[in-house]
């Protein structure tokens, strides 16, 4: 149909708007081919002349008929585009108080910031055994579909839950777990569901923190495999973690916090059982006061610690082990307060009888003199001799912080390992449903190595998502023998190549890390020389020689190069490690007993359930005071992503895209700017584009009763 036939008087369109993203308007005059503008009437009664771009002459998006507004599946809309999606979600959410909407095979879940009575046993029973399209959109419908396909197709399943922190990912994962436990008949069998859910407050305490965008931001990703026996009853679970943000242990940006557990301990410092920890207010410790925001509105950290301790007990981590955990955590806070002073430009010292170093050493059972020595010195080895070299104050401080991050990461891994032990089963696993709860695409005012890795992960997941949606769409057309033209959808492989291919960002980063005098600045120059002219997705900021820009599938992101090499190498002073290994403190012995067996980085190795590895053979051409890791953090994260993608590709995926409707936790309040930002970043609009490229209107065809009969088609 010609544009002049659609854009007639009284036709309604969407035009861009600075506040609402899209604004509805009505044509008050027919459009004719060649017109330079449209005469419109806005909903507030204002007349507007909407000028068309002379280069493209693109007309504004048409608005759907009112009868279609509020559809529970976005692909049922006549006009499939961004404003239609945004408006439909807003109407369902704010007017009808409906938080779930389908977008083809994707469930869009908007956080209501309010408890809703839609998750009880009666609702579970209502969805059990039903087909996905027969009931209103719901997380239970997705869970039922995954459970049904696991049993019917004898194939493992995955539910991929993504979105910003605070969008409701963990809640969605929790309700999916509850559904599986109930319909599989194992809700009261060995309390597996209770134990899995008990892992949430533990993982939130040690892996979540307040950021500028959310008070309870997950700073790691996790993939939980729920195991089923041959009768499809839950028998156990296993959790894999990804990329803990270790830098947060020693540094927080303004208005942010360290991990919750530190503030919980400080809030409970007055309790008799914590007296020996020598803790006080969070404002008294460097590692918990840098963000200048030690309190979260509406959160009682002391009460939260009670919840954390109860969850530890449920998972079999006894009182003695908990005391040990808290000792190590308190020791980290004291270590951060050890002030290293400058002796001269090339050396540093710790004044005698430093009370925080004394507390650290007593809490973890190491010798004060040894730790004081190796915080300010390093051992150098050459082919013929070994000698001790003093460290300048800045290097010594960085080494102190590296040790703090290393110890915290080991403790995090130990807890994950013990959570998994509590969820393990001796019954043979027949199949599983995996639930991936992973960080969404991130862009902040300052983006560093962590955001780079997170966005790299989202590029890989987006590619998997696009390919799966595209494949399903194509198979439907082929199955129904409908002639069609191949859909040309956005393929982000060039961006992935920019990151992970030979001479890509990660490859050049690893190469720079191997250089004796490698630096963030020289790495930045190599990036510019390699990619500025050859890759359109890579840019250099005008005002900086220490940053780079990547055009991701969701948005452009500027990354600051400072700190990339240090975070990628993730090195720790070997002599400090030896001091820690000499401890007689039981938990520290457990944390460091495998130090010589494993390779690194020292943080949670993504995809290994937290196991770490360190090489003890020094590179003769390099400073042997740092344990050089066979694999850098970036390299290991790349490998872990490949393993994750392999797992997901071997399962049937189901997608839940969680949306945070506003930044103020207001119940059923919809900020269109925040919503559309997330819709663009999570692939919902790409799904719409793929669907729109085919036939948007679908009619179920009922097979004829005989060869001579005619098939009957009925509109959805």
From TrEMBL:
<feature type="compositionally biased region" description="Basic and acidic residues">
    <location>
        <begin position="616"/>
        <end position="627"/>
    </location>
</feature>
<dbReference type="GO" id="GO:0016020">
    <property type="term" value="C:membrane"/>
</dbReference>
<dbReference type="InterPro" id="IPR036103">
    <property type="entry name" value="MYSc_Myo5"/>
</dbReference>
<keyword id="KW-0677">Repeat</keyword>
<keyword id="KW-0518">Myosin</keyword>
<protein>
    <submittedName>
        <fullName>Myosin VAa</fullName>
    </submittedName>
</protein>
<keyword id="KW-0067">ATP-binding</keyword>
<dbReference type="GO" id="GO:0000146">
    <property type="term" value="F:microfilament motor activity"/>
</dbReference>
<feature type="domain" description="Myosin N-terminal SH3-like">
    <location>
        <begin position="8"/>
        <end position="60"/>
    </location>
</feature>
<dbReference type="InterPro" id="IPR027417">
    <property type="entry name" value="P-loop_NTPase"/>
</dbReference>
<feature type="domain" description="Myosin motor">
    <location>
        <begin position="69"/>
        <end position="716"/>
    </location>
</feature>
<dbReference type="InterPro" id="IPR036961">
    <property type="entry name" value="Kinesin_motor_dom_sf"/>
</dbReference>
<feature type="region of interest" description="Actin-binding">
    <location>
        <begin position="641"/>
        <end position="663"/>
    </location>
</feature>
<dbReference type="GO" id="GO:0016459">
    <property type="term" value="C:myosin complex"/>
</dbReference>
<dbReference type="GO" id="GO:0007015">
    <property type="term" value="P:actin filament organization"/>
</dbReference>
<feature type="binding site">
    <location>
        <begin position="163"/>
        <end position="170"/>
    </location>
    <ligand>
        <name>ATP</name>
    </ligand>
</feature>
<keyword id="KW-0009">Actin-binding</keyword>
<keyword id="KW-0547">Nucleotide-binding</keyword>
<keyword id="KW-0175">Coiled coil</keyword>
<dbReference type="GO" id="GO:0005524">
    <property type="term" value="F:ATP binding"/>
</dbReference>
<keyword id="KW-0505">Motor protein</keyword>
<dbReference type="GO" id="GO:0051015">
    <property type="term" value="F:actin filament binding"/>
</dbReference>
<dbReference type="InterPro" id="IPR001609">
    <property type="entry name" value="Myosin_head_motor_dom-like"/>
</dbReference>
<dbReference type="Pfam" id="PF00063">
    <property type="entry name" value="Myosin_head"/>
</dbReference>
<dbReference type="GO" id="GO:0005737">
    <property type="term" value="C:cytoplasm"/>
</dbReference>
<dbReference type="InterPro" id="IPR004009">
    <property type="entry name" value="SH3_Myosin"/>
</dbReference>
<feature type="region of interest" description="Disordered">
    <location>
        <begin position="598"/>
        <end position="627"/>
    </location>
</feature>
<comment type="similarity">
    <text>Belongs to the TRAFAC class myosin-kinesin ATPase superfamily. Myosin family.</text>
</comment>
